[in-house]
Amino acid sequence: MRYITKIKLASTIFLAVIALSLIISQNASPDNPAFWSLKRAQEKVYLRLKSNPQEKLDYMSFLLDRRLDELSSQVKRQSYSQILPSASRYSSLAGQITELIISNNFTAYIEPTKQKFHSHQKVLQDLYILYPKNTDNIEYKYIEDDINYLNIYLDKLR
Question: Within 13 Å of residue 52, how many CA atoms lie on the same side as its CB?
């Protein structure tokens, strides 16, 4: 009987640690690789569970806001080594959103997505201005790339 009780206790502790890790990882940034990986895995699983393309698009739109916040955070904290992967994740997701809208003919999503892209461009412009240009770090070019990618995606949504 004691053996079963120990297994139950260990299982409960294990599940509690996993649950706590999942909760903590929600606010993880790319600077924290362990929790960041867990956060990204959660997002990917959650996205795959979305079978309805509209639900998938809504979730991807939420993630795009999250990617922009992460990129902003990297610039403001001067964590320049993470700019390229953050900028790449952002532009890739914006492109996936655009393609999902086009391939499913989601005309109702075109205007809201265009508005989101325009508002994100303003944030990216501010980040570009904020980024120091007189250093060895040239990652500000990746922020500029995101701005340009959004222009391409906006053209596709016309």
Answer: 4
**Count of C-beta atoms within a 10 Å radius of residue 139:** 18
Q: What span, in angstroms and rounded, lies between the C-alpha atoms of 30 and 39?
A: 10
- Using the Cα atoms of residue 56, residue 67, residue 97 and residue 41 in order, give the sign of their dihedral: negative
Is the separation of the CB atoms in 120 and 80 below 8 Å? no
Q: Give the per-residue pLDDT at 78.
A: 86
Global pTM reads 0.83
From the list 44, 52, 67, 56, the residue with the least C-alpha distance to 117 is 67
* 94 close to 64: Cβ distance less than 8 angstroms: yes
CB 43 within 8 A of CB 26: no
In this prediction, the residues of the chain whose per-residue pLDDT falls under 50 are none
Instruction: Show me where the domains of the chain are located.
Output: 1-49, 52-158
The pLDDT assigned to 72 comes to 94
Residue 106 CB neighbours (<10 A):
15
Q: How many C-beta atoms lie closer than 10 Å to residue 131's C-beta? A: 21
Among residues 68, 131, 139, the alpha carbon closest in space to that of 97 is found at 68
pLDDT (0 to 100) of residue 16: 65
Any idea which residue has 């795009």 for tokens? 64
